[in-house]
C-alpha cells in the first residue's frame, strides 16, 4: 500500500487531533467576507473551547508571508488561510519550519489545494468547524528557485503545480478583472490567444541524478498534486503526500496530438482512472503527453519564458530548480476525512 493511500490507524488518528491552542486567520480582504468569517469563527472557537482568534490582513504588497509571520510571533498554533490560491501559497510559505497547522477557507476561482485534499469548497461553517475540530495531516511542500534574465534569483514555495508553456501563457493573458467577475470562464479568451501561439519551449533539464536532456515542447509542468477545476485530472498518479512530484511534458505536433491529449486527460484520467477496472484499460504514455516522477528538477531555457506557480503568474524565468520537502507542511482536515 502506497504512502498516498495508507490509512492511519485509530491511535494515529487520535494523536493527530488538535489540542486547544491559539488560532489566527490570515485573510485577503478582496476575496472574502470578513464579517461572515468572524461570526462563524466566534461561534466555533467558543464551542471548541479555544481563545479568541487573531486576525491578520494581507495586502497587494504582502500576499500572506508577513501576516503569517505576525501570527506565529503572536503565538498562533493554527493559521486559517482565507483567500484564493495565492493567499494559500503565501501562508504555506510563511509556515515552513514552524510547528503550526494550516487550515483552508477556500475562496476565489481555483481552490486548487482544497480540491486535491477533497475539502468542502462552498460551506463556510463546515470549513471553520473543521479548523477547530479536525485532525492534522502532513503533506509535501515544493520549493523553487527561479533565475531571471538579469541573473537574479528569487525563491518561493508552491503546493500544487509549477508550469512553463501553455498554462503559464494562458494565465499571463487572462484579464484579472474579468476573472474576478466570471471565474474560470475568463480563461476562454486567454486559451484562444494561446492556441494561436506556435512558439514552443526550448530547454534542457535534469531530473534527479539522471542525464541532462534537451527538449522542445509546448509545456512542462511539475505537479505536487494533479486535480484542476472542472474535474480535470491532469496528473492521475500525483499525490500530495507521496514524497515525489510528477512531471508532465506536453508536446502536440498536430491536431492528432491534441486529440491524444484530450483523450488521455478527459477520458483516461477523468473517467477510466477513477475505477479499478478502468485503470486496467489505460494505454500509458502517448507521444504528445509524457509523465515521469522525481524529487529534484533543474531546467534551463533558451530564452525567458512565462512561469506560473499554483495558478498565479510569476513573470519570466530563464532557469529554475525545484525540489520537494516531504511532509513539510501540516494541514488541518475534517476529522472524518
UniProtKB/TrEMBL annotation:
GO terms for cellular component: plasma membrane. Residues 68-148 form the DAGKc domain. Residues 1-20 are annotated as: Disordered. SUPFAM superfamilies: NAD kinase/diacylglycerol kinase-like. Its cofactor is Mg(2+). Keywords: ATP-binding, Kinase, Lipid biosynthesis, Lipid metabolism, Nucleotide-binding, Phospholipid biosynthesis, Phospholipid metabolism, Transferase. One of its GO terms (biological process) is phospholipid biosynthetic process. InterPro entries: ATP-NAD_kinase_N (IPR017438), Diacylglycerol_kinase_cat_dom (IPR001206), Lipid_Phosphate_FormReg (IPR050187), NAD/diacylglycerol_kinase_sf (IPR016064), YegS/DAGK_C (IPR045540). One of its GO terms (molecular function) is kinase activity. The keyword rRNA-binding does not apply. Gene3D superfamilies: 2.60.200.40, Probable inorganic polyphosphate/atp-NAD kinase, domain 1. Belongs to the diacylglycerol/lipid kinase family. PANTHER family: LIPID KINASE YEGS, SPHINGOSINE KINASE. This is Sphingosine kinase. The lineage of its organism: Bacteria, Bacillati, Actinomycetota, Actinomycetes, Micrococcales.
Amino acid at each position: 500500500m502506497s504512502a498516498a493511500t495508507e490509512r492511519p490507524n485509530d491511535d494515529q488518528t487520535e494523536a493527530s487531533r488538535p489540542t486547544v491552542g491559539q488560532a489566527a486567520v490570515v485573510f485577503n480582504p478582496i476575496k472574502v467576507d470578513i464579517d461572515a468569517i468572524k461570526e462563524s469563527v466566534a461561534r466555533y472557537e467558543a464551542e471548541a473551547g479555544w481563545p479568541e482568534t487573531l486576525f491578520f490582513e494581507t495586502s497587494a504588497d504582502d500576499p500572506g508571508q508577513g501576516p503569517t509571520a505576525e501570527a506565529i510571533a503572536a503565538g498562533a498554533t493554527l493559521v486559517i488561510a482565507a483567500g484564493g490560491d495565492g493567499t494559500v501559497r503565501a501562508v504555506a510559505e510563511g509556515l515552513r519550519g514552524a510547528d503550526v497547522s494550516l487550515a483552508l477557507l477556500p475562496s476565489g476561482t481555483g481552490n486548487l489545494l482544497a480540491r486535491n485534499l477533497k475539502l468542502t469548497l462552498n460551506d463556510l461553517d463546515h470549513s471553520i468547524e473543521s479548523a477547530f475540530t479536525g485532525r492534522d495531516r502532513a503533506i509535501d511542500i515544493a520549493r523553487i528557485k527561479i533565475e531571471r534574465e538579469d541573473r537574479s534569483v528569487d525563491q518561493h514555495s508552491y503546493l500544487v503545480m509549477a508550469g512553463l508553456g501553455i498554462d503559464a501563457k494562458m494565465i499571463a493573458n487572462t484579464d484579472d478583472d474579468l476573472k474576478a467577475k466570471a471565474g474560470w470562464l475568463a480563461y476562454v479568451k486567454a486559451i484562444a490567444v494561446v492556441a494561436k501561439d506556435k512558439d514552443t519551449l526550448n530547454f534542457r533539464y535534469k531530473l534527479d541524478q539522471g542525464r541532462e536532456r534537451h527538449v522542445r515542447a509546448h509545456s512542462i509542468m511539475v505537479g505536487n498534486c494533479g486535480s484542476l477545476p472542472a474535474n480535470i485530472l491532469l496528473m492521475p498518479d500525483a499525490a500530495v503526500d507521496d514524497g515525489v512530484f510528477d512531471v508532465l511534458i506536453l508536446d502536440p505536433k498536430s491536431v492528432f496530438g491534441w486529440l491524444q491529449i484530450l483523450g488521455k486527460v478527459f477520458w483516461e484520467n477523468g473517467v477510466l482512472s477513477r475505477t479499478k477496472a478502468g485503470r486496467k484499460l489505460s494505454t500509458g504514455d502517448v507521444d504528445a503527453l509524457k509523465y515521469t516522477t522525481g524529487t529534484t528538477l533543474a531546467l534551463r531555457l533558451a530564452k525567458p519564458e512565462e512561469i506560473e506557480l499554483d495558478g498565479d503568474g510569476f513573470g519570466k524565468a530563464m532557469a529554475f530548480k525545484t525540489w520537494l520537502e516531504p511532509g513539510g507542511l501540516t494541514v488541518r482536515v475534517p476529522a472524518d476525512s
